[in-house]
Amino acid sequence: MLEELEQVLPGDIEKRSFEIITEELGERTFDPLEEPIIKRCIHTSADFDYADQLYFSPGAVKIGIEAIKKGARIVTDTNMGKAGVNKTALGKFGGEVLCFMADEDVAEAAKREGTTRAVASVKKAAALKAAETAEATGKPKEELGKRRQADDRPLILAVGNAPTALIEAYELIQKGRFAPDLVIGVPVGFVNVIPAKERIMQAGVPCIVARGRKGGSNIAAAICNALIYMSFNKTKV
Amino acid sequence: MLEELEQVLPGDIEKRSFEIITEELGERTFDPLEEPIIKRCIHTSADFDYADQLYFSPGAVKIGIEAIKKGARIVTDTNMGKAGVNKTALGKFGGEVLCFMADEDVAEAAKREGTTRAVASVKKAAALKAAETAEATGKPKEELGKRRQADDRPLILAVGNAPTALIEAYELIQKGRFAPDLVIGVPVGFVNVIPAKERIMQAGVPCIVARGRKGGSNIAAAICNALIYMSFNKTKV
User: Fold this and answer.
1) Which helix (H) or strand (E) holds B159?
2) Most buried pick, A34, A71, A229, B193, via CB within 10 A?
3) Residue B217 to residue A218, Cβ atoms within 8 A
4) What is the pLDDT of residues B163-205, one digit of tens each?
5) Could you give the residue ranges of the DSSP H alpha helices within chain B?
6) Residue B18 belongs to a domain
């Protein structure tokens, strides 16, 4: 005997899914700004671990929404993550998704510097939004920020795959050479994933991180999409 | 105090990851053909549930490998799944990955027929590899197979997102109008995902299915990639 299908109109499936997630979360309560992000991660993975594992630095969600409203560029570390972000919705605010992993210059830089393409990609992202801080340079404040690009849209770095990308981001931030508005740090895996996430949580930048080993390009995209939908004041939950 | 980084060369990270997965699986044993697929699903999700949840119809892995060696077309139900498949490796056998979700004719067909793009996409895939069976048509055997396309490369349907796609595939297979060589049935979610997977496991086609709610475009891509790497006799485990 085959289990009967639940009769739900195609356009209502997502709504019904979020209702089921809410039911199963039961009595648990969340920060109202964090809740849509947590639920969307569960929605994309059917994994309720995300109810416990997501870390938000103070104000991170608000900062992410403000960035998107100002036309943020989202830089992903995989084309899979890029494919998963709702680019039509993001584009309504003037934003776009960039992934440098398959770029010729990134491949060349990685080869030349004996590093990975993930690291070279983050360097390329950093060049889009570099910062010189007083701490890093010892320069007086009025001389700072000269490297700022003409394109001063916010930048969100979304790492769903490579811990090396997150570690490189941490180091560039420490050196005052990268000033992302928000880092989504959700690489998945077994080698250096946890220490990479620890570093980014201590980097002093706004961040949303999946603690532990879990994450992925799908989770990175889900967090981006939750932020985008919240930017419309349509949280889809 | 930051946790120290494990010193692993970039090229060795995947190997080291699989070693950790093997260690943590401990005494468990798996079918040697199924093991690389199970481990790659864990590798892509850090979720050990896949050690228990993957279902393989008899001979499914062997059939998948044979299909890839013959230049299979892999049809995915998301561009995210398509992005995750190693197209360079697949291309060495003459294969390619197709996703019809963003196609104009699919959008039009969905609108015209009041269905979803996922369903219209599966119909388009079915047209690539239709079959007339004696059961469905009542015709004598020698008249069957006339709809077979000029391009007779094998077809693998890889569903990581839409249960409606899997249900449509089941119905077309039942009617003798779709003859995929292998179905990878790993949609994720909360509405009709489990009944959709039950149907495809009973459809009489070779299939690999993630039982329960879990799955995703990342899992669909991971299973495809495991099959591709095994086709080189390099299982990467």
Assistant:
1) strand B155-159
2) B193
3) yes
4) 999 999 999 999 999 999 999 999 999 999 999 999 999 999 9
5) 13-25, 35-45, 50-53, 60-69, 79-84, 87-91, 104-113, 117-128, 134-137, 163-174, 193-201, 217-231
6) yes
B198 Cβ under 8 Å from any chain A Cβ: yes
- CA torsion A196-A198-A203-A204 (nearest 10°) is 150
Chain B residues close to A189, C-beta within 8 Å: 13, 17, 43, 46
Q: Amino acid identity of A86?
A: N
Distance of CA B35 to the CA centre of its chain: 16
For B89, the token pair is 């490796």
Token pair for B66: 């044979």
* Beta-strand pair A96-99/A73-76: parallel
Closest CA to B192 of A212, A179, A46: A46
Give the pLDDT of residue A142: 56
Q: Closest to B79 (Cβ–Cβ): which among A83, A164, A214?
A: A83
Site of tokens 């084309």:
A79
Contact B93, B231 (CB under 8 A): yes
Handedness of CA A28, A31, A35, A38 (dihedral sign): negative
Residue A172 pLDDT exceeds 80 = yes
Give the Cα separation of A226 and B59 in Å (integer): 40
CATH number at residue A180: 3.40.50.10230
Q: Is residue B120 part of a domain?
A: yes
A10 domain residue, yes or no = no
| Cα B197 from Cα B122, distance rounded (Å) | 15
Which residue is closest to B221 within chain A, CA to CA?
A: A80
B137 close contact with A: CB closer than 8 A: no
Mutation pick from B190, B197, B201, B224 vs chain A, by most beta carbons of A within 10 Å, is B190
Look at residues A13, A44, A224 and name the one whose alpha carbon lies nearest to residue B216: A44
Domain presence at residue A19: no
Q: Which domain holds residue A127?
A: 52-231
Query: ipTM of the assembly?
Result: 0.90
Beta bridge partners of A156: A74, A182
